Amino acid sequence: MIVGGVLSPIENVLTEVLIWLHDSVGFSWAWSIVALTVIVRMLLVPVALRQIHSMQSLQMHAPEMKALQQRYKNDRQKQSEELMKFYRENKINPYAACLPVVFQIPIFISLFFVLRGFEAEVFCDPEIGGQVFCKTVGGVLTVLPQFQSQLEWLGLVNITEPTKDGWGPVLLVVYVASQLTSTWLMSTQMQSTAQRVMIMVLPIVFIPFILNFPSGLMIYWLTTNLWTTGQGVLTRRQMPKPPPPPKRTSRTPAKEAPAATEPAASASRSSSHGQARSGPPRRVKRKRGGRPRR
């Protein structure tokens, strides 16, 4: 398969990390997948921070971008040019929000191929003592029943079996809840209602496609969602938001105009007063004070 050939280096790295976590660290195969997920997400923390900064900047400058869109709503090309210019001037990367997903897609697909051939290529590998756990029956490599527990996670699912088998649907329900939570935290930074609805519906749409995924891949996805949820809550509390851009209103006085016009205005006022007082002084008659009326 072409995709499998392109992603072979990533598959080899994931396989070696899983074997190291199992043999050297002492994790079970299922918990090795959880640890692998944590390692991957720790490596993607700088990308996630850029994503959060970008979404905060887009939220802060949303009114200005909306004004640009309204100004050039009849000229799509001019609107795109002005928006790109606005992004450059304010150092906004509109594509930074997609970077974590872009980096995770190759890892997700590579882990799918690793788990698909996990029993034959890893668990039953003779080089790591796999011949004790497996045997060939009718030309098919089979894991012995007494060693099935080594592939299980929490005694519920086998990481090599499809998610729809056994207790996999329970894992699927937890996945949907975690996915909705993580996507909801992401959607709160979006201005468009259509984008919010779409990103909340996608986890439900994916359910028919992931029923045949290996349960180990679902464990990876579930751990990723839990990490994303915790990271989103933590960063929103600890990371300060960028300062909002200065707001300009009709009441804001101009900065240079008064400095230029003030001398002229004062000169005109002094000249007018001088002209008014150039003649003889006026005499003011005072009225004699009378007695107050009772």
Number of folding domains? 1
Ranges where pLDDT stays below 50 over 5 or more residues in a row are 254-265, 270-276
Shape: elongated
Query: What's the story with the biggest beta sheet?
Result: 2 strands, antiparallel
Structural class, judged by helices and strands? mainly alpha
Fraction of helical residues: 55-70%
Describe the structure.
- It is a single chain.
- It is elongated and about 125 Å long.
- The protein has 13 helices and four strands.
- The model is unreliable at 254-265 and 270-276 (pLDDT under 50).
- The protein has 294 residues and is mainly α.
- The chain has helices at 2-6, 8-25, 29-43, 45-60, 62-71, 76-90, 99-116, 118-123, 168-187, 193-205, 207-210, 215-238, 257-276, and strands at residues 134-137, 140-143, 152-153, 157-158.
- The strands form two sheets. The protein has a two-stranded antiparallel ribbon.
- The protein has one domain (2-238).
